[in-house]
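Case study.
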Amino acid sequence: MHTLRLGLIGSGFMGRTHALAAHSVGLVFPQYGAPTCEILADTDAAQAADQAAALGFRRSTGDWRELVADAQVDIVDICTPNHLHYPMAKAALEHGKHVYCEKPLALSVDESRELAALAKDRGCVTLVGFNYAKNPIITMAGNLIAQGALGRIHHVRGTHIEDYLADPKRPGGWRTRQALAGLGALGDLCHILSLTQRLVGEPVAVCADFQTVYRERPDGPVENEDQMHALLRFDGGAIGTIECSRVAWGRKNGLTLEISGSKGSLCFDQERQNELYFYRGGEGDPQGFKRILLGPDQPDYAAFCPAPGHGLGFNDLKVIEMRDLLEAINGSGQSWPDFGAAARIDAVTAAMAASFDSGGWVSVNTTNAGCSGTSNQG
Ligand SMILES: NC(=O)c1ccc[n+]([C@@H]2O[C@H](COP(=O)([O-])OP(=O)(O)OC[C@H]3O[C@@H](n4cnc5c(N)ncnc54)[C@H](O)[C@@H]3O)[C@@H](O)[C@H]2O)c1
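After joint prediction, the assembly is written out as follows.
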């Protein structure tokens, strides 16, 4: 096992989070070693140098193309606005690098599938930043489902609603420009689809409505949706609803999931990310949801803390995600969600957009060239 060398592109919100994870992962999960923070790229040389110093990288560059070609880089880590994911990931894979990329993988399903096929062809490990699916309590939920505790799943209710653009006086930045972001609230908050992919299966058909609530912001017109909701049919037979919003005052990270089956139900709320609620049907009185608190019986929690109920946070999920990447590169070769799994999520969001355009139900295009990945059902 040789020490892997990381090249980070972008040092905003996510770049900083990935840097924190790269520095911590070797302490929390020593079996995979710590990657070397080798080089950081940002839009210009001065900014890159400042950020490299602040985030503990040895070198810097104002040109990401230099980073992806650098012989001292094993992993290219992409934390830039969405439109740059495709050209950066493509160039990195062409140089034979492993690629860790923020979500959504690309602006179109064709781009995502091309990247998945290229990664497969080059034998490179890929991982996309759907960090909420890395929560050990989601692993526990997956285990309960796999053990049959819910019986046959028949309904899913998911939300990812936040209020970061609820104030119309707030500039939208790159997130409200179609050419830079692609989709709006749905593209930003497609995390909910990684949870359903992990726990329920793949949507096969969708019917969606989109709305732009505030069409103008101080930095220009808003070119994508502020909120959307959709009906879904899943491959395992369940039906469900998904909501995404960036204008829902008071919701800071309203990523919630409720799954109902023939024997029981599970509820999760990211704002209380250390708790899972489980209801086993058919039990005598008193009836009620059982609150399960995350503890060291879950190995990925124990790696951080020996005491139950002390809690993990957002940045810890990124450390677990980084561990999964290192584990895949150092041996297993398997990661989830890899580019194939992320391309399937992009196919669902594209089907939702097509459904809004056509005003009716749309089948999800499940063409799967170059795609792989796992889910518990279907
Ligand atoms: N996984 C999550 O929970 C999560 C949360 C927020 C954002 N994201 C995703 O992470 C990505 C980045 O979002 P963010 O919030 O960090 O954005 P941000 O605007 O805070 O940071 C973007 C960074 O990219 C840099 N950049 C822009 N163009 C560049 C170029 N040509 N070359 C090099 N660097 C360039 C910017 O200077 C900045 O440092 C997006 O794809 C977003 O969807 C994921």
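Observations recorded in class. Confidence is low (pLDDT under 50) at residues 368-378. The longest helix spans residues 339-358. We will return to this complex in the next lecture.
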